[in-house]
Design brief:
- This protein has helices spanning about 40-55, 55-60, 65-80, 80-90, 95-120, 155-170, 185-195, 215-220, 235-245, 270-280, 300-315, 335-350, 385-390, 405-410, 425-435, 470-475; strands at about 1-5, 5-10, 10-15, 20-25, 30-35, 125-130, 135-145, 145-150, 175-180, 205, 225-230, 250-255, 260-265, 290-295, 350-355, 375-380, 395-400, 415, 420-425, 440-445, 460, 465, 475-485.
- The strands form six sheets. The protein has a seven-stranded mixed beta sheet with strand order 15-16-17-14-13-19-20, with helices on both faces. A six-stranded mixed beta sheet has the order 10-9-8-11-12-22, with helices on both faces.
- The radius of gyration is 23 Å and the shape is globular.
- The chain has about 475 residues and is of the alpha/beta class.
Length: about 475
Amino acid sequence: MKEFKHFINGQYVSSASGKTFDNRSPVDNSLIGTIHEAGREEVDAAVQAAKAALKGPWSKLTQVERTQLLNKVAERINARFDEFLEAECLDTGKPRSMAAQIDIPRGAANFKAFTETVANLPTEGFRMDTPDGKGAMNFGHRTPKGVIAVIAPWNLPLLLMTWKVGPALACGNTVVVKPSEETPMTTTLLGEVMNECGVPPGVFNVVHGFGPDSAGEFLTTHPDVNAITFTGETRTGEAIMKAAAVGLRNISLECGGKNPALVFADCDLEKAVEGTMRSAFVNCGQVCLGTERVYVERPIFAQFVARMKEEVAKLKLGRPEDSEANFGPLVSLEHRAKVKYYYDLAVEEGATVEIGGGIPDMGEALNAGAWIEPTIWTGLADDARVIREEIFGPCCHIRPFDDEEEVIALANDTDYGLAAAIWTENTSRAIRVAEHMEAGIVWVNSWFLRDLRTSFGGAKQSGIGREGGIHGMEFYTEMKNICIKL
């Protein structure tokens, strides 16, 4: 039985209230352990520890010294790779092969990537004329923003948490992290690593709990939090934005998506099928950048649907440790109930279920887990709820189109604007269509190909602000102008 406590000021602490909740395996619903739920007392202690560290030894380190510490953190995560891998797979149920290739390596790499970015972070300098003819010099100087509240999601727990913690700490801030209540393990374990590497107490803090009337609300409304960064659903992002308005705290929100793929008849069909399969079904469809709407040019529509069905039929469901499994359960029974609701709604709305659509029989040992079938639909109207609303499960709807203008309009006909994928061998068309996509990131003949120096974020209801490279550093620092009269 595991116990997940808060990590505050370099120590693991219990909740004063004694309140805990279960952490259950999505694979078979077995009890992994208990998680302490933070009240206002624990959240305040974490924020005050972060505030004190901001003014204490952390602020006295040089950039080189801070970089050396954070690079040690990355190295230590890799040294304890198997522990982080086991924790991530226990929490999420995802195949070990996926977590070993993506979640843990990228989670560690985020520290080194952003220390390198900070080392090359530009400011600005200008000379100006003055009436006395002697002039003045202006130069920009960056300072840490302060105490950063990090609200992290459950689909890629370590990777997306360090995606925020890495740049925040590299810029000299301190953090209070609230991981998802579904996936507390790797964030909690990271506290040990911070201590092992000599990161000063209070620089990295963790509080566990839920959103309303729990750790999430107490953290985002705390007056000593200087900025809030969040990844998750749009509705929660709206609540955080309202909380941040009190005190005019800065926010960075990466929210929901209903991402399209545009498959033209001149595409490399096998590459388009392979890429769309990954974008719709990797991590059981629980990826913010995943594809739920697929538009295929009519001459290859039937062939594309047939190939997708063939590939879905090959997916092997199984435990994380099953080396042949490439498809795990959803994160929880609660989330499965949501996804299954949309599966049933699709049928009510007139969809043709090409494959899947139900809950698989995994046998007596696993049937209590959060398993669901990968699913493809055709035949839905463009105004169907299944087409309009984010599902966040292993499913997609495939629809034919006839010309470029039509598919651009269909792809952009959504409240969201996170990502899009275009499949065509016509370079002029690829650029032309990409420029018309109302999305923060557009892939051409690829998916989930990320250069960490580039901007990442959403348009419309998919978020506010940009992360990655110098774009994220704008959020984690305050730029002041220093003017010197000559």
